[in-house]
Amino acid sequence: MASYQDAIDRIVAGNRVYAQKTTEKDPNAFVELSKGQAPEILWIGCADSRVPETTVCDCQPGELFVHRNIANTVHADDINVASVVEYAVAHLKVKKVVVCGHTKCGGANAALGDADLGVTLNTWLHPVREIRRKNKTELEKLPDDDARAVRIAELNVHQGIEVLKQHPAIKKAMNDHGLSLHGLIYDIGRGQLRLLEEAGAKKSNGLWSPN
């Protein structure tokens, strides 16, 4: 079994390879990045190690401004996500905000029941478990727990978007320059993103945005 130091050595060595390859491809890449950032998208995703947003979206450093947490949950009273949103929307002037859930999500799966995960995780996942309770009838009609966990992940994305719509910076940006919010699900087993359609939304350039 690899030791802790082996794991650190691996990422440091990997960084050297990345830096070398990037510089060989574009000698000015890091010089340009050091001048500042102007991402068009704020990505709110899950902390799951299998869903690295720049990798699965084939994006480069500087293209996505990112916040990740357990189960990509957006709490109305979470100053962490709120501060990321305010900075991205009010100061970086992103044009899109994405909330991305995924299949095989540990948080969504944990929300299927009420097992004691510890004080912090119990508190953090409480809103996701409330989604299960509010949608009990719909979820019980699904064939198995895998399908139920995916549906909880979808509903959690929709709830996150609804919470974001109440953020003052989001409201202002939507009114001032047409900021739009988008929900996605990443299918780990297929490596593909799926766009979630919102009720009362219209499709534009392949994305759904509020009317």
UniProtKB/TrEMBL annotation:
The family annotation for this protein states: Belongs to the beta-class carbonic anhydrase family.
**What's the source species for this entry?**
Lojkania enalia
Q: Which residues bind Zn(2+)?
A: C46, D48, H102, C105
Superkingdom of origin organism: Eukaryota
Which co-factors does it depend on?
A: Zn(2+)
Query: Would I find Transmembrane helix among this entry's keywords?
Result: no
Enzyme Commission number, as recorded:
4.2.1.1
Q: Name one GO molecular function term.
A: carbonate dehydratase activity
Record-level GO BP terms: carbon utilization; cellular response to carbon dioxide; cellular response to oxidative stress
Catalysed reaction, written as an equation: hydrogencarbonate + H(+) = CO2 + H2O
Cofactor annotation remark: Binds 1 zinc ion per subunit.
What UniProt keywords are attached to this protein's entry? Lyase, Metal-binding, Zinc
State what this protein does: Reversible hydration of carbon dioxide.
Q: Which InterPro entries does the UniProt record give?
A: Carbonic_anhydrase, Carbonic_anhydrase_CS, Carbonic_anhydrase_sf
Task: Name the chain's protein.
Answer: Carbonic anhydrase
